[in-house]
Amino acid sequence: MPSFDIVSKIDMPSVQNALDGVRKEINTRYDFKGSNCEVEQQEDKIIIKADDELKRKQVEELLITYLTRKKVDTGALEFDKPEAASGNSIRQEVLVKQGIDRETAQKIVKVIKQSKSKTQTAIQGDEVRVSGKKRDDLQEAIKLIKDLNLKHPLQYENFRD
Question: How far apart are CA 161 and CA 2, in angstroms?
Fold first, then answer.
C-alpha cells in the first residue's frame, strides 16, 4: 500500500552557516562599528542582542537574508517580542520550529478526510503519515495540503509504493 510522510524539518547546519555569515557581516559593516550586536544559537533558538531597535531590526533582516540564501524556509522562524536586556540593550529570541505541531497536523488530517479521497491519515508524533491504494490518491492529498497555504514549511518524504 503506497504511503508517504508529511514532515517539517529544518537543516540546522545551514542555519549555523547562515548565523556565521550574519556574524561576519556584523563585524565588517561600518554601521555596526562599536556596537554590541551579536547573534547566537542555543539548540533550536536564535538569540539576537542589539544596542537599539534600529540595529535589532537590521540584524533581523540580515538573519532572514542569510537564511534565504542557504535555502532555509523562513516560515519556520517564530520571532518573539523584543525585550529590554541589561546595559540598555535589546534582546530577542527567535524559535526555529521543527516538526508539525498538533494543531497543524489535525488541520491536515481534517482536510484530507473532508475531501473524501481514498486515503488514510495518521498523526505519528511530529509527522503525519498518509497512505492509500493508488499513487494518484496520494498525489491528490499532496495537492490538497499545498492548497491549504500553511505558514509552516512542509516536506513530503518516504514515498513508498
Answer: 4
Distances (CA, A) of 69 to 14, 16, 42: 10, 13, 21
- Residue 133 grid cell: 491504494
Measured in whole angstroms, the distance separating CA 89 from the mean position of its chain's CA atoms is: 27
For the stretch 59-118, pLDDT in tens is 889 999 999 999 988 888 888 998 888 778 898 898 888 888 888 888 888 888 888 888
Is residue 90 located within the same domain as residue 132?
no
Do residues 23 and 81 share a domain?
A: yes
Instruction: Cite the beta strand spans of 28-161 per DSSP E.
Output: 38-42, 45-50, 77-79, 83-85, 89-96, 119-124, 127-132, 155-160
Task: Specify whether 107 is located in the same domain as 89.
Answer: no
pTM (whole model) above 0.90: no
Structural domain range at position 111: 3-8+100-160
Residues in the chain: 161
Q: Which amino acid is at 99?
A: G
Residue with cell 519556520: 76
Query: How far, rounded to the nearest angstrom, does the alpha carbon of residue 83 sit from its chain's CA centroid?
Result: 22
Give the model's pLDDT for residue 66.
92
